[in-house]
């Protein structure tokens, strides 16, 4: 009885951070009406029921996995579902419950021809690494609440402070070069502890060690700066590519630090470096 009461108390006090719900939001009007939420919080896998009272949204099923800090919730969004914030009510067998607010937003209706255009053969693409390109806002170079809290332009293995504002400040320069498309390396959050490689402490300034798939790293200026840069790029008649290799996650990502299940990622007995050979993926023989 005491064990059951303690479980109920823990569940009542459960707090789910918005960054620990993937995807953080979804869109109305999608061709496929299904979406699966991955929710991460202490003991969330002990949930026995999930309900939602929002027009056009139903819970299809819930699934717990080996790690009880995860719960997967399958939703179905009907064509009648409207943008807004829905509330999921999660309950346990003891009667305890918690809530999660989750947003539906309107799908972009632009047609991909007059506004959003893909990269084509005639495009002149400029690949750049934001941290190394230009520092437009020194105030965001480093944050004490991040695992890698420094920046040092004299150290080739450290972050240097380049950001999205720095790219925006050079749009005229890029335009004059004849550039039609800007391709930055990933700018999503890399809140990573420095790695030790070859006896050298290294930052993930390159961007390929994601720790949050849905937020732009605040050392680059965050989500607002990203939108501002994209809008400014389009205003000059140029395109903007998003480089995001979604399986390139860092060791400090929450779903790596706390794996949902043993086979969530491929793991070797000891560190095994990639060969960078793509033939096994492209060649069936």
Summary of the model, kept short:
This protein has helices at residues 2-12, 130-133, 164-168, 171-176, 222-235, 254-257, 279-282; strands spanning 21-22, 25-28, 34-40, 49-52, 57-64, 70-77, 84-91, 97-106, 125-128, 181-184, 188-189, 195-197, 200-202, 212-216, 239-240. The chain is of the alpha+beta class.
What is the helix tally? 7
- CATH structural fold name of the largest domain: TIM Barrel
Uncertain segments are 1-13
- What is the beta-strand fraction? 25-35%
Q: Give the overall form.
A: globular
At the fourth level of CATH, the homologous superfamily of the largest domain is Glycosidases
Query: How would you characterize the largest beta sheet?
Result: 4 strands, antiparallel
The CA-CA distance between the termini, in Å, is 60 Å
Q: Can you list the strand order of the major beta sheet?
A: 1-3-6-5
CATH class of the largest domain: Alpha Beta
Instruction: Indicate the CATH architecture of the largest domain.
Output: Alpha-Beta Barrel
Structure classification: alpha+beta
* SSE ordering: HEEEEEEEEEHHHEEEEEHEHH
Description:
The chain is of the alpha+beta class and 285 residues long. Helices cover 17% and strands 26% of the residues. A four-stranded antiparallel beta sheet has the order 1-3-6-5, with no helix packed on it. It is globular, with a radius of gyration of 22 Å.
């Amino acid at each position: 009885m005491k064990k059951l009461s303690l479980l109920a108390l823990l569940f009542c006090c459960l707090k789910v951070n918005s960054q620990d719900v993937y995807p953080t939001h979804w869109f109305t009007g999608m061709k496929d009406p299904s979406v699966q939420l991955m929710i991460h919080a202490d003991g969330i896998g002990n949930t026995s029921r999930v309900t939602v009272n929002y027009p056009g949204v139903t819970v299809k099923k819930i699934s717990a996995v080996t790690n009880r800090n995860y719960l997967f919730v399958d939703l179905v969004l009907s064509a009648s579902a409207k943008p807004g914030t829905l509330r999921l009510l999660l309950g346990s067998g003891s009667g305890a419950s918690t809530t999660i607010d989750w947003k539906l937003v309107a799908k972009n209706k632009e047609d991909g021809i007059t506004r959003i255009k893909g990269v084509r053969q005639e495009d002149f693409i400029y690949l750049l690494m934001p941290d190394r390109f230009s520092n437009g806002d020194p105030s965001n170079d480093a944050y004490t609440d991040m695992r890698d809290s420094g920046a040092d332009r004299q150290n080739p293995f450290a972050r240097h402070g380049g950001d999205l504002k720095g790219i925006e400040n050079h749009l005229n320069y890029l335009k004059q070069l004849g550039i039609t498309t800007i391709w930055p390396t990933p700018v999503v959050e890399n809140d990573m502890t420095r790695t030790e490689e070859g006896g050298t402490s290294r930052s993930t300034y390159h961007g390929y060690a994601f720790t949050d798939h849905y937020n732009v790293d605040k050392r680059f200026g965050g989500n607002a700066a990203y939108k501002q840069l994209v809008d400014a790029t389009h205003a000059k008649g140029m395109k903007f590519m998003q480089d995001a290799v979604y399986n390139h996650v860092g060791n400090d990502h929450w779903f790596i630090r706390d794996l949902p299940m043993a086979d969530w990622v491929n793991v070797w007995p000891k560190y095994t470096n990639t060969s960078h050979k793509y033939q096994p993926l492209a060649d069936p023989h």
